[in-house]
Amino acid sequence: MAVLMAVPTMTPQQRATALEKAAETRTARRALLAGVKSGTTSVAEVFGRSGEELVKKTRVAQVLRAVPGYGPARVAALMAVSGVAEKRRVGGLTEQQRERLLQALAGLAALRSPGAA
User: Fold this and answer.
1) For residue range 51-66, what is the model confidence (pLDDT) as tens digits?
2) DSSP-assigned letters across all residues of 37-81
């Protein structure tokens, strides 16, 4: 049986502050993912920053989809092979899961490179 709780009422000032903080978080997350997409930030660097609040709360699938050439299907397969749940956040990854993801990414990158035999 679910217990319903009343939503706390916020003053207009509290609401404005919360909305401003949410907008700042969206902007910062967009910048993080843009860095991955442009290649200036690697997935390993993002995983290394998992102590930061913004990175900790970012979904792993979002980070992986920011990698050029990785869409929803490839990301889902990569996460399944690595044993990472679809809804997992970067802060919730174990060290083993991070390693498996990075190894799988490196393996796929080697397969996709033109010089791969």
Assistant:
1) 899 999 999 999 999 9
2) HHTSS-HHHHHHTTTSHHHHTSBHHHHHHTSTT--HHHHHHHHHH
